[in-house]
Amino acid sequence: MATKVIMPKQGLQMTEGNIIEWKKAEGEVVEEGEPLFEMETDKLTIDIDSPVSGTLLKIVRAAGEVVPITELIAVIGEPGEDISALLADAESVAAPAAPGAAPESTAPVMPPSVDTRGASDAASASADQPAAVNGLPDNGRVFATPRARMRAEEHEVELSTLAGSGPQGLIIERDVLEAIKNAPRASSLARKVAEQMGVTLDGISGTGPQGRILRDDVLSVVGHSSGVGGATGSASVGEAGLQSARKLPISGMRRVIARRMRESLDTAAQAVHRIEVDMSESGRMRAKLKDLGIKVSYNDVVMKAVASALREHPRMNATMTEDEIIEFSEINIGMAVAVEEGLLVPVLKAVDRMGLKEIHAESQRLGELARDGGLSSADMQGGTFSVSNLGMYEIDSFTAVINSPESGILAVGAVKDRVVPENGEAVIRPMAHLSLTYDHRIIDGAPAASFLRTVKTLLENPYLLI
Amino acid sequence: MANKKIAVAIRDVIAEEMRRDDAVFVMGEDIGEQGGVFGCTRDLQKEFGKLRVRDTPIAEAGYVGLGIGAALTGMRPIIDFMYLDFTFVAGDQLLNQVAKLRYMYGGRASLPMVIRGQQGIGRGNAGTHSQSVETIFTHIPGFKVVMPSNAYDAAGLLRTAIRDNNPVMFIEHKALYITSDEVPDDPDFMIPFGQAAIKRQGKDATIVATSLMVSRALEAAEILAADGIEAEVIDPRTLLPLDIGTIVESVKKTGRALVVHEAHRNAGIGAEIGSEISEEAFKYLDAPVARLGAKACTLPFALVLEDAVVPGVDDIVESVKDLCYRKN
Question: What is the ipTM of this complex?
Answer without folding.
Answer: 0.84
